[in-house]
Write a structure and sequence with these properties.
The chain is mostly helical. It has 22 helices and no strands. It has helices spanning 2-6, 25-46, 50-57, 65-72, 77-82, 87-102, 111-118, 123-157, 161-169, 171-175, 180-184, 202-215, 221-236, 241-260, 264-279, 284-300, 305-311, 313-318, 325-337, 343-346, 353-364, 369-376. Helix 15 packs antiparallel against helix 16 (284-300) and helix 19 packs across helix 21. It is elongated and about 80 Å long.
């Protein structure tokens, strides 16, 4: 009892609440990536990524998808280093065939690849596409061509000559696929083909003349007169004879277009321009060109004979006394083989019969042997080539 009284009373205190031990820094580091990954998963579920959209845009059901994916990967720069340095060129060469197989409804699978190839640093890749863009336009149709191919076509027009020649060789084939209003925009750019990186590249101008002969039919007579006429006249004065000779045929097609469209006034203006520019040219090459143009005009019947007799024949007959024998040779050939064979001039009652007969007799007595030969040559015989006389 005495012991119990000696111990003082100790008030009861509440037990301290247990606190969680502080987490270690290592555990914080482990939980952070998990939180980030979970947030990224939620974001992917909410908004699909661009890459998945691109993958879905290249899905089709015509050929095995893995095969198409392998083809599209040919534009990967790494492939050029590990597989083949010209793999992009092979890809460009095969693209029209792949597009034809997939069909225009699956063009979206190839569009990005085509644009990548069109801007490739290797000009050989771009050249390959330039040579086949007209074929691809046929496959895609006018709407897709206007939307996706025309911008690339315009880029090729400003490229190196090695690329531009691919566009030029099939210029008519591409332009005829465009709608009239879009096609007319290129009238202003045709003149640019006259300028080349190398002025000695005469085949470029020759190809331009060949294409313009076809392109004449795509435009109205007014557009032909305003835009193509001046290009034709410039080509007719080219330094290279091959370019000049093909350009004379272009002149004939322009005259045909003007007269067949009923634009006789424009046709007469062009005829007078030919007389002034070539018949009265101080250089014999120009006067020789006039003789050839006259022969081609009669052969092709591109101008009414009464118009020819009135506006071109007098100037042609005047060249029969030209001081240069090579000019008289072309005059003799034109009169004997072409003009005199036309019924319009064969008629004894023709007002031009006497002048023609006198001119031919004068050429048959010419001092130059070649002139006498062509003035006396029987038209029923095979026509002889006079290219060596140019």
């Amino acid at each position: 009892l005495a012991l119990e009284q000696s111990e003082p009373d100790i008030p009861e205190q509440p037990l301290p609440t247990q606190q969680a031990p502080p987490e270690s820094p290592e555990k914080d580091k482990e939980s952070a990536p998990q939180l980030i990954e979970s947030m990224e998963e939620l974001q992917r579920e909410a908004e699909p990524t661009t890459s998945s959209e691109e993958e879905r845009s290249k899905v089709q059901n015509v050929i095995p998808q893995q095969l198409l994916d392998q083809y599209l990967s040919m534009t990967d720069p790494a492939r050029a280093q590990t597989v083949d340095t010209e793999i992009a060129k092979h890809c460009a060469f095969s693209l029209p065939g792949v597009a034809l197989t997939l069909g225009r409804q699956n063009w979206h699978c190839l569009k990005d690849t085509y644009e990548t190839l069109a801007t490739d640093v290797q000009w050989k890749v771009r050249r390959t596409l330039a040579f086949s863009i007209h074929e691809l336009a046929v496959i895609l149709g006018d709407q897709l061509t206007a939307a996706d191919l025309v911008p690339i076509f315009n880029g090729f027009l400003k490229d190196l000559d090695e690329v531009r020649i691919g566009v030029l060789k099939h210029l008519y084939d591409f332009l005829k696929l465009l709608r009239a209003e879009k096609r007319r925009e290129y009238l202003y750019q045709l003149q640019e083909f006259m300028v080349t990186d190398n002025s000695r590249n005469w085949r470029f101008r020759y190809e331009l003349a060949e294409q313009l002969i076809l392109i004449v039919e795509l435009y109205s007579h007014a557009d032909v007169y305003d835009y193509l006429r001046q290009i034709a006249l410039t080509l007719c004065s080219d330094k290279v004879s091959e370019v000049r000779w093909i350009s004379y045929k272009l002149v004939v097609e322009i005259l045909r277009k003007l007269y067949s469209s009923g634009a006789d006034d424009l046709g007469l203006n062009f005829t007078n321009e030919l007389v002034a520019r070539f018949c009265h040219c101080p250089k014999w090459v120009g006067r020789q060109a006039f003789a050839f143009i006259c022969q081609a005009v009669v052969e092709e019947d591109c101008v009414p004979m009464e118009q020819f007799a009135q506006h071109l024949l007098p100037s042609l007959l005047g060249l029969s006394s030209d001081p240069v024998a090579n000019v008289r040779v072309l005059v003799a050939k034109a009169l004997r083989q072409t003009v005199l064979e036309k019924a319009y001039f064969k008629d004894p009652g023709s007002v031009y019969a006497e002048a023609l007969e006198e001119t031919v007799m004068s050429l048959q007595a010419d001092r130059d042997r070649d002139v006498r030969f062509f003035a006396s040559l029987d038209p029923s015989r095979a026509s002889m080539d006079t290219a060596a006389l140019i």
